[in-house]
Design goal:
Layout: H1 18-30, H2 36-50, E1 67-69, E2 77-82, E3 85-89, E4 98-103, E5 108-111, H3 120-127, E6 132-135, H4 141-144, E7 152-156, H5 159-164, H6 170-173, E8 204-206, E9 211-213, E10 218-223, E11 232-236, E12 241-245, E13 252-255, H7 262-275, E14 281-284, H8 294-308, E15 315-317, E16 320-324, E17 329-333
Parallel strand pairs: 5-6, 6-7, 7-8, 12-14, 13-17
Antiparallel strand pairs: 1-2, 2-3, 3-4, 4-5, 9-10, 10-11, 11-12, 15-16, 16-17
Helix pairs in contact: 7-8
The structure holds zinc ion (2 copies).
Amino acid sequence: MTLSTPITNTYQRLAVSPIIIMSALTFTAAQAPLHASAQASIEASAQAEEQPEFCGQIPRVGWANYEKLDVSDDWFQVYQLHDDLYAISEPYQWQEVISYLIIGESRALLFDSGNGMGDIKRVVDALTPLSVTVLASHSHIDHVGGHYQFETVLAPETAFTNDRAKGRGNAFVAEEASTAALCRPLPNGVTEDNHRTRAFTPTARVEEGSKIDLGGTVLTVMMIPGHTPDSLMLLDTAKGRLFTGDSYYKGPIWLYASETDLPAYARSIGRMADLAPTLTSIHGAHNEPYSDPAELLKVRNAFTAIMAGTRKPDEVLGTQAIYQFGTFDLLMQKDHDHK
Ligand SMILES: [Zn+2]
Ligand SMILES: [Zn+2]
C-alpha cells in the first residue's frame, strides 16, 4: 500500500490507517536530504499539505440541511435535526463520528458518546436539563469514549461489550489522536501519547425488543450483530426514525475487523432493509446525520451480491477489498468467505 494509491471514496472514513499515510509522508520527506533551515521550511509546508483529505470536505454537504447550534465548544459541533433530536458530531477527527441526543418528555438518551476526547457531558448538559442515559450502538472505541462521564449506562450483555467496557489503553487508540487523524488540535489536554478509552460500567442491560421509554418517545432496541457482536439499532416506530450505528451510514461501511461476522451481518442488513418502507429517516453514526431509508435496500442487495460472489471488488488495498456503490462502500477482508 502506498500513498500514490488514490483514496477514492467520496464519503469516507479513510479506508486506510492514518498511520500508514504518516509513514509514507515521512518516507517522502526523507528522500532528499536538506540542510536544516530548508528542511524546516519543507516540513512546515508539508504539515499544511499533510492535513488529511477528509479535512477539505468538512462540513459534508448533508449538514447544510440542519441548523447548527452554538455550543461554545471547539471540538464538537451540534446540529438540531428536530425539536427532540440533536446530532453531536466530531468532524475534526477522521472518524467523523456522530452521537445522537434524543429528548423525551421525562428523560433523554444519548446514543453513542464519541471518541472520549472532548467533554461530551458538558455539551449534553447544555442541550437538556433532563437526566441523560447513555447507550452505544456498539462498543467500538469511537462510540463509547464518553460513557465514563454518565451514571446511567445501558448495554447489551455480550462478551464483546463486557471486554470493551474495561477500556483500552494508549497503545490501542493512539493513532486516533495522531496528527494524520486530525484537522485541528485535540481538546482537554488530550495528546497522542495520553489518549485512552476509559472504562465504563453498564448499570442496566438491554436486549432484542427492549423498550426505552423517554416519556412520549419510546425507542425499541433491535440487535443487529455483524459489524460487531453487540451491534444494535434503535427504532422510533412512531416517528419512523432508525438509528443504525455503524451497521449503516453514508460512507465506507467497515465489515473488516476480526470481530465482524459476515453471515450475521447478512441477516441484520436484511432486517434493516425490511424496515425501510416504514421509515422516514435513517441516522447513521459517521459522516452525515441523515440518509434515505431506501439506501438500506441498496446495501442489502449489494451485500447479497458480494456474498454470492457475483460482485467483485472495485479496489483491493493490501488485505482490504473495497466495493463501491456510489452513496456507500462496503469494506471487507480481501479473502472473506463467500457463504
Ligand atoms: Zn464500529
Ligand atoms: Zn464507528
